[in-house]
Amino acid sequence: STQRSIVQECMNFLNSANKEQLKSLKGIGEKRANYIIKLREHSPELFKGIDDLRDVIGMNKREVLTLYCMHTFIDIIDIYIWLVYTVPVLLTGTCTTE
Questions:
Q1: Residue 98 lies in a domain
Q2: How many beta carbons lie within 10 A of that of residue 33, not counting itself?
Q3: Domain count along the chain
Q4: pLDDT of residue 94
């Protein structure tokens, strides 16, 4: 689905971006970027889903939302789909689309 491909693209970016690319994302500064890179040395596929953003690097729900909305590969249609399908999951912890 489009929702899953958006999430997967974000995870791929976080798993491969260099320090400067990571720092360009709202919510990721010098400290988090260094931490992500250090963790990736031991686990190259560190990020597999949205929960990993909270569990691995301690991002809160608002930071996750901001990160996704600010990332350049999400266009208006993708943002709409993401808001309709992903935000309820983030807020409630349950998926209502499956």
A1: no
A2: 20
A3: 1
A4: 56
